[in-house]
C-alpha cells in the first residue's frame, strides 16, 4: 500500500479507558481511497496528548513498520515497552447480507459520495465501528418497515440507498432523505400524540426527545430509530404505552437532552 502521512486522515475514533479504535482514510493511488481500521490495545502506544488529534495520530502510526504495507485492519499491541502489530487479524465490520434488502435499495461507495446525491442533500447514517452495528440494524429495519405500511410511511423520512466501503458486500451505512420542518414543542402535543399512536402500529420509537420530532407541512415526522422496538416483540405494547405517557414531558423538556451537536 503506497501511502504517505500527508494523504492519510482520521475519519473517526473511539477512545476507551484501555484501548482506542481508529477509522482512517488512505489514498492509495491517484484519487482512489481506502477505509482501514486500527485498534490500539494499549494506549501507551500513542502519547496521551496525541491520541485524539488526527495528524498526530497518523504521525505516530506511520512509525510502525507495517504502516505502508497492504492491510485492511491493524491491531497494535505494546508489551514490556515493545510494540508489535497484527495485520488483518480481524475483518472490517459490515451489515450481514441477510439484514439487507438489496432488491429495494441501490448501493454506493462512500468514497464516491459528495455533498449532494442526485442534486439533493441527503443524510448519511454510518456504523463507524463494530459495536455501532446493532443500532444501525435497528434503524435500517425501522425505515424499511415503515416504508412498507401505507398508513404510516409518511411519518419518517425515506431510506434511499445503502453505503459501502470498498466493496458492495461491506455495507456500513445508509442515506436517508432530509426532513424540512421545525422541532416539535408542547403546542404540538395532540398532533404528535396522534402520530405516535399511528407509529405504534409498526414500532416503538424508543427515544422520543423533541429533537427527533419535526413538524412539517405534512404533519409530524420522526427521525433516529436507533433504539426502536417492533410492537410484535414481547415488550412492545408496554413500551408503546410508556412512550405515549411520557410524550408531554419530552416536548416540554428544556434541558437540551437529545439535541444534536452544534444545534443552536
UniProtKB/TrEMBL annotation:
One of its GO terms (molecular function) is protein serine/threonine kinase activity. Gene3D superfamilies: Transferase(Phosphotransferase) domain 1. Its EC number is 2.7.11.1. SUPFAM superfamilies: Protein kinase-like (PK-like). It comes from the Eukaryota. The keyword Signal does not apply. The keyword Methyltransferase does not apply. Pfam families: RIO1. This is non-specific serine/threonine protein kinase.
